[in-house]
Write a structure and sequence with these properties.
Elements (H helix, E strand, L loop, with lengths): L2 E5 L2 E4 L4 E8 L6 E8 L6 E7 L4 E3 L7 E6 L4 E6 L8 E10 L5 E5 L3 E6 L1
Parallel strand pairs: 2-11
Antiparallel strand pairs: 1-3, 3-8, 4-5, 4-9, 5-6, 7-8, 9-10, 9-11
Length: 120
């Protein structure tokens, strides 16, 4: 069974940095996208950044230039380097994996979430 374990969340002052990590275990097929989403209180869950197996990355406009997503295909990990954090970046960050199995079925997995708190 696929499992996603996140780490790296915590409390940081505005302007500081944090790195989130997600370790993925289980059966991971070649066609997959890994990414990070976040949800602030009272808001919908939103995309932060994703990266395909081929290394093509997308990120939300609000984090461009500040956040960097990367993955290690050999280790099945995906990291999110967050720099110059702002108050509006606070929320629960969720690791996500979407993949296509050998029967061409799309499968989606979520981590349990890790809290990022930004203080002024």
């Amino acid at each position: 069974q696929v499992q996603l374990v996140e780490s790296g969340g915590g409390l940081v002052q505005a302007g500081g940095s944090l790195t989130l990590s997600c370790a993925v275990s289980g059966t991971i097929f070649s066609i997959n996208t890994m990414g990070w989403y976040r949800q602030a209180p009272g808001k919908q869950r939103e995309l932060v950044a994703t990266v395909t197996g081929g290394g093509v990355a997308n990120s939300a406009d609000s984090v461009k230039g500040r956040f960097t997503i990367s993955r290690d295909n050999a280790k099945n990990t995906v990291d999110l380097q967050m720099n110059n954090l702002k108050l509006e970046d606070a929320g629960v960050y969720y690791c996500n994996v979407r993949q296509v199995d050998r029967e061409w079925r799309e499968l989606t997995y979520w981590g349990q979430g890790t809290q990022v708190t930004v203080s002024s």
